[in-house]
Amino acid sequence: MTDPANPVNYDRMTVPLVIFSDLDGTLLDHETYGFEAAKPAFEILKARGIPLVLASSKTAVEIATLREKMGFTHCPAIIENGSGLLPAGPFDTKSIDQTVYKKLRNTVQALPPHLRRLYQGFGDWTVAEITAKTGLPTHEAQQASKRQFSEPGLWSGTEKELASFIQHLTNHNISARHGGRFLTLSYGGTKGVKMGQILDRYTTDTTRPPSLALGDAPNDIEMLEAADIGVIIKNPHGTKIAPLQGEQTGTIRRSDKPGPEGWAYSVLSILHEMNLYSYKA
Question: Which of 131, 148, 182, 229 has its CA 20 to 30 A from that of 191?
């Protein structure tokens, strides 16, 4: 059994399960951004050699910091809504390359003015404004501004104007996706696609480990549907996920509790079902 105090890099090793998790509204509380309720489950995962792959719209800097606090630096992560990957191991801020982000911003700036003014992204806001709109502490808002591949923002126009905005973006190969809080723009890539790439790394010549995915917003749907088991975490604050086909077959379920509390309960319940964890009497 793995020593939880000294977890190893499980890349290319046989693991019993790989867990993919959204952050805001799922593993992180919607209001406080805390994950304390999930800590007991973290220790179970580490002890059983189960990788936890964080998958979020957050930047590499943000996720690297959270990953370290949670104790999963030995696991890769999916950043900026699936438009990038963060390798396992220590993170060096010198590795940040904003070339793609600057191209994205320049393209958005060049859109017709009547549409451009209806969308405000992180690149339009100061750190203080990001703090005000997200509720993040100042130092975390600063990390959130260090984007490489995508632009979260707020839309203030009508649905008809939004359709026109998205069509103009599509003409430039830019996609727009609704998350729990923001409309995020990028050149593509989804959590589901990156999930498959990471699972490939954990696949041996004879074994592909099962996968569990947890999320709360529409931008998690591909990941939830691609997993062997998907869990929709209850989030009273964000955009709801409509009923999915997997809910009829039992491959996707919904938690009754929100945030990290619902996350921990769901994870431990599924580990119990898979005979990877036994509840104490």
Answer: 131
